[in-house]
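Methods — Computational structure assignment.
A single polypeptide chain was analysed. Its primary sequence is given first, followed by the predicted tertiary structure written as structure tokens.
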Amino acid sequence: MVSRAPVLSAVLFDMDGTLVETEQHWGEAMAALARRLGGEMSAKAREQTVGTSIAVSMAILHADLGLERTEEQLLAAGRWVEDATAELLAGEIHWRPGARELLTEVRHAAVPTALVTTTPRRLADIVLGAIDRAFPDVPPFDHTVCGDEVPARKPDPAPYRQAMAALGVPASGCVVVEDSTAGVTAGLAAGAAVLGVPSLQELSPAPGLVLREALAGVGLGDLVDVLAARQAVDARV
């Protein structure tokens, strides 16, 4: 009996550090804030902020500096970092290796796509504008979900579940492409197969997760293989 390849219902992409080289802008802004506060953010603390919300990042940064802050002070610090990051995002956007080619192949195959990012909408739209200009013939995404549009942020599965619902696709047919532990955790918890491509943060193996060093050379067939690997894990449970 010949087994059939699984049907790829949709591909859900993270943004910062996965599709585009924007994660370092957040790092630059947080490093600048740390200096304003009279300290230096450690490499370990920076790694812990990858893929998290601005609120979580601010808590990590201030704890790293040994500073106690009120909720209002943390919110103000978060707004400062967002504003500083917005200025950096206004410059040229650089694609992660292989990301543009993979997204192009997925779109030409008419597979539904979504962008699912923890970045707030006002900042994500700056990057999305640049991504849209790279796809003049077909919109790169059928739906986008930003960090300030969900009831809970990654590593909670809510953002990916929201995207799946908007696309009208089952989790069992979805592949999530992520670079962070928070994103991978969210994708797996949402029931999707996950392709992990680490950038600033090491990713640990997990059932349903396929790891690659980069998206360069990854094509539609590879995403189907990622989905098949997740379905094989689920079949053994």
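Note: The longest strand covers residues 174-178.
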